[in-house]
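hi! just following up on the protien thing from before. the input was this:
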Amino acid sequence: MNQSTLTVGELCTLIRAVIEETMPDDFWVEGEISGLHRARNGHVYFDLIEPGEDPGASPAATLPVVLFRDTRDRVNRLLKRHGDPIRMSDGVSVRIQGRVDYYPPSGRVQLRMSSIDPTFTLGRLTAHRDALLAALSAEGVLRANAARSLVPVPLRVGLVTSVGSAAYADISKVFERSGFAFTVVEVDTPVQGAGVEVQVAAAIRAADSAGVDVLLVARGGGSKTDLAVFDHERVARAITSARVPVVTGIGHDIDRSVADEVAHTSTTTPTAAAQFVVGRVEDWLDRLADRETHLVAAGRRAVQRAEQRLETVRSGVAVLTRNVLDRSDRQLTSRCGRLVRTARSVERRALGQIARGVARLEVAQRHGLTVAERRVDAAAAQVRALDPAGALARGWSITRDGDGRVVRSAAAVEPGDAVTTQLVDGVLTSTITARTHAARAHAARPQHANTDHRNTSGTSEETT
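and the predicted 3d structure came back as:
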């Protein structure tokens, strides 16, 4: 059996003819964009894949797609008529229309894209968004971050965005113009593209652990698909588990993402997010100024009331003092009168007591003088009775030795001693020639110091 041999070109032409004959019409195909590349000539190339069942697994099927420049312009006009809701980029689920084509130079079957269904992509995004919000609500974490307490003066701010983007510049400008001493902890992260949800979630966790007062998650405007990362579960759960309040400023006024729903506060733009934080500080300063005004006014009113009370008390004290002084004066006058009367009575009693005392003293004095005179007379009589002159007149004498001492005993002189004897009418000087001791005479010796015994010497020399 003869078989003709075909060249590669002939076979490719045959394959292309078979495809065109068997698949002459356009098809609607849904899948996920992967590996999108925009060539310099304006053509766009990407793969439309059917993702595997497990995250990160290889695609279950892959179909190369080419969007030629002319068709691309028509597709863009279509998207703009719908408000430009989606942007073709990796990770975006799309429903596109095209015709199967075989391209001999590269030997591949591809889909020549001719149109796109924006409602499909938006429907998928909405369905995914609604399912995620329902799941978070069922778990009770949808408003977990909203329950976080925002400090009155959040000066340490965490910022999760693409550093160098327009959103970053707008936020920085607001903080700089505020005049407040903000400290901004910047965590740079891409905010668009397939798989960036992992990086955004990691950036939120990093900023949350940096000791900030509030955390800003910001991105400028874009299509629904550009903002799809903020509808991702990873980002949403990073916000719900944040320890500090999260403020979002994503897209434009009409945009509302899952991140906005789970954040503590959502604003319409990055600029509005920064202004919210600045406004928080301004509000605190305004309240502080209001409280200062209220305190000053309250202080003035308190001073006025105190002055009024002081005046009332002063007047009352003055009246009370006058009344007390009047009563005191009356009491003092009354007591002075009683004291004068009492003093006079005491004076009279004292004078009477003194008079009676003086009378008693006079009587006692007279009695004492009489007793004293009697004692003096008795003493004089004793003196007279004991006067040596009387004893001498009765015949007694007094003998003294050479030293003038009274001789009271014979033993007091020795033979040859000179003695003097005093008589009533003169003095005799004698020399002791002998002495005789007599027991009787010793026993009968006078006991008075001013008397003396008679001279008993056997021989004496007398001189008158």
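DSSP finds ten helices and 13 strands in the chain.
The two ends are 225 Å apart (CA to CA).
cheers
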